[in-house]
Design goal:
CATH superfamily of the largest domain: P-loop containing nucleotide triphosphate hydrolases
Helix content: 25-40%
Strand content: 15-25%
CATH architecture of the largest domain: 3-Layer(aba) Sandwich
Radius of gyration: 19 Å
Structural class: alpha/beta
Number of helices: 9
Distance between the termini: 54 Å
Number of strands: 10
CATH class of the largest domain: Alpha Beta
Number of domains: 2
Largest sheet: 6 strands, mixed
CATH topology of the largest domain: Rossmann fold
Length: 253
């Protein structure tokens, strides 16, 4: 009996030969990577390596100089609105409207993403990230950790198929960071969400990411599982790899 084996689903994210320059400065240099459905992929590197620029291109906030970016099989340049309805983003360094109350911010974003039953979803997320008691507080009066947790609530409000996370635990205390890592793994298991994850916290990366790409000066210099990366670079831990890569930034390529 003959038959065709089931084919693998297409990547959620497919980046090919991505390049971004700002004048003479090359922020992203021939970057190629992909993320499969349900996969958590880390994009790692020192400050200035090109990680945030790459995320901004994926979100359509910055236009690539050259190369292609396809999300859900669609070109970001041609289908940005459709793509963004299926994605969301959280960063420890981005602020939501500061003059709105916590619940008002979530209401605004629920309208932008056409979220049904927004009250139930908002309450469930605020409870999960332990800010439900702050629902009537002005967002601009929150601490940095509370703001980060509000950003994470916003990022999960529309049940995204792709979640882009830029330093999501940077402002969180160790207890909340641990809860976030467990929440992300649970979401991956329950909903098969694909995620792109940047962090300087190597414990985050080791516990959360299925695969990682190390970037130096906009180029990928290593890829694999966290343990494979440690072996590739001949180090004892992912943190030692990060330090070695960061300290090599001043060396000639």
């Amino acid at each position: 009996m003959s038959g065709n084996l089931p084919s693998e689903p297409p990547p959620v994210v497919e980046v090919r030969n991505l390049r971004k320059t700002f004048g003479k400065f090359v922020a992203v240099d021939d970057l190629s990577f992909e993320i499969k459905p349900g996969e958590i992929v880390g994009l790692l590197g020192a400050n200035g390596a090109g990680k945030t620029t790459a995320i901004h291109i994926l979100l359509g906030l910055t236009t690539a100089t050259s190369g292609t970016v396809r999300l859900f099989g669609l070109d970001i340049a041609k289908h940005r609105s459709e793509i963004l309805q299926r994605c969301n983003f959280s960063s420890a360094y981005s602020n939501l409207p500061m003059n709105l109350r916590v619940w008002e911010n979530l209401r605004i974003f629920s309208l932008l993403y056409n979220v049904r039953d927004w009250k139930r979803k908002s309450r469930k997320l605020m409870e999960a990230f332990e800010i439900d008691h702050l629902r009537n507080h002005i967002s601009g009066h929150l601490s940095s950790g509370e703001t980060t947790r509000l950003n994470l609530c916003k990022a999960l409000l529309n049940d995204p198929e792709l979640l882009l996370l830029d330093e999501p635990t940077a402002s969180l205390d160790p207890d909340m960071a641990d809860k976030l890592r467990k929440t992300l793994r649970q979401l991956q298991k329950e909903r098969n969400i694909a995620m792109l994850y940047t962090s300087h916290n190597m414990r985050d990366v080791h516990e959360v990411c299925d695969r990682v790409y190390f970037v130096r000066r906009g180029k990928i210099i290593g890829s694999g599982t966290p343990n494979e990366i440690v072996t590739q670079f001949g180090q004892k831990s992912l943190e030692e790899v990060f330090i070695a890569v960061a300290r090599s930034e001043e060396e000639p390529l």
